[in-house]
Amino acid sequence: MKPLRNSHLFFATLAGLCLLGSSLAVADAPLEGTKPAQWRVLWTDDPATTATVSWSTAARGENHTVRYRKRNSDEQNSIQLADSGRYTGGEFELYYHHARLSELEPSTAYEVQMVSDSEQSPVFYFVTAPATTRPFSILHGGDSRSDQDARRRVNTMIAEMVASSYDNDDEADDILALAHGGDYIVSGTKMDLWSMWLSDHELTTGPDGRLLPLIPARGNHDKGKPFNEVFGFPEDDLNYYSISIGPDVRFVTLNSETSTAGDQAQWLAEELSQSRKSHCWLLTQYHRPVYPAVKEPGAGLKSWVPLFEKFNVDLVCEADGHNIKRTVPIRNGKHDETGVVYIGEGGMGVPQRTPKPERWFLQEPGMADQGHHIFVLTFQDATLTGKCVLEGGKVRDEFSRTARAQPLTQ
Predict the structure, then answer these.
(1) Domains and CATH numbers, the chain
(2) What is the DSSP string of 329-368?
(3) Max alpha carbon distance in the chain (Å)?
(4) Suppose 303 and one of 139, 183, 260, 344 were both cysteines; which one would form an S-S bond, judging by CB atoms 3.0 to 4.6 Å apart?
(5) C-alpha angle 160/164/170, rounded to 5°?
């Protein structure tokens, strides 16, 4: 069932019940004192029962919490303390706050309000992932660096796409999350650029206050400590992980900016082996493409592709190339209808490059082009449908994949 919309939002304060205004903030919320800004929701664990609610403040502050409860509920809200610290890499002060919510209910809308000292954010909401089989969609894109105006336009388009996806009764249209394939900014060590990106990300917030969960991957421009601080990873985290979006879809995020062999490849082999047995769909995302439309192949061509083919990964999402591409199905280095399809390669604001469509893996039924874009991936029954949507809403490419395994029963 789709979440209810356009209702009054109530929250309990720490001392008791208090009616809050339901007015929503616009993007570019000012960074002033301990006023919460740069809000976001992150999915890096079990998205049916957990989520990280994050925000920034200009001042350190003393107490940082999130109030949350089921949307449209009269129950008293719960309080979650945030892990806080100062971002690395900036001459100016800026502080992160990550409130890690757990024991949530699947397919449930939760109202959230970020509180730093006496300052409060507007009331938002997000929706947890399902725990039973249902159709849905997610977005994938990458490379939002360099052109801030284009990035803001794409983010605005994303908010409009998410809002319109809930305007009908077809659950398959419902967009649940955004997977970002990396390269958020030009230089990952510069916190002033991260701060701009974080403020621009507010534009993905829906007109009714819906926060779109983000599934982040690290890109080659995202070197340095701020990446983990922005996305709530532990300081020494290597940024490869897997989540299940419902019982049928396993979404694996890899890190092409560290060794693709060794521990990461061993982890990937174990992950794909187990997930292929339990999930209808296997998808991966990472930054550097292994079948690129412009550049030379990344190291994952040797480390990961044999595993993708061994365990029949259904779709691979890449970035880095600054263009649009969809390969033919590939197995053993040639076109094979039983093979793996690769899409990408990043168009969330970065200036676009001219692809090389003469490469064998981009020829029909593959494709290559350029333009700011986002992919919509829809899972329904035994079919995965993909659409590449250009800025302005034009659909540049459509494709479908048939499940290699049957969907799980409810």
Answers:
(1) 11-127 (2.60.40.380), 136-402 (3.60.21.10)
(2) PEETTEE-TTSBEEEE---SSSPPPPP-TTSGGGSTTSEE
(3) 66
(4) 260
(5) 150
Specify the long-range contacts of residues 358-367, CB closer than 8 Å, at least 24 apart: 359/291, 359/293, 360/335, 361/291, 361/327, 361/328, 361/330, 361/335, 362/293, 362/325, 362/326, 362/327, 362/328, 363/328, 365/328, 366/325, 366/326, 366/327, 366/328, 367/324, 367/325, 367/326, 367/397
Q: Report helix, strand or coil for 313.
A: coil
| Stronger pLDDT, 290 or 15, i.e. the higher one | 290
Alpha-carbon torsion angle 350, 286, 101, 165, nearest 10 = 60
Bridge partners for 385 per DSSP: 378, 400
Q: Is the pLDDT score of 18 beyond 60?
A: no
pLDDT at res. 92: 83
Q: What is the mean pLDDT of residues 105-132?
A: 97
- Cβ pair 293, 318 in contact under 8 A: no
pTM: 0.92
pLDDT given for residue 91 in this prediction: 80
Q: What pLDDT was estimated at residue 405?
A: 64
From residue 312, how far is each of 22, 144, 261, 277 by CA, in Å? 47, 30, 19, 11
Assign 4 a pLDDT band (cuts: 50, 70, 90). very low
- 269: phi then psi, degrees, rounded to nearest 5: -60, -45
> Prior bond to 226 cis, omega within 30?
no
d(CA 234, CA 60): 20
Helix/strand/coil for 262: helix
**DSSP string computed for 132-164:** S---EEEEEE----S-HHHHHHHHHHHHHHHHH
Cα separation of 61 and 74, whole Å? Answer: 30
Instruction: Please state the φ and ψ torsions of residue 285, each to the nearest 5 degrees.
Output: -135, 150
Q: What are phi and psi of 271, to 5 degrees?
A: -65, -50
Phi and psi at 74, nearest 5°, equal -95, 0
Beta-carbon contacts of residue 274 (< 8 Å; ≥ 6 apart): none
The reported pLDDT for the residue numbered 406 is 57
Q: What order do you get walking across the sheet with 249-253 strand by strand?
A: 241-245, 249-253, 281-285, 315-317, 341-344, 324-326, 367-369
Average pLDDT for the chain = 92
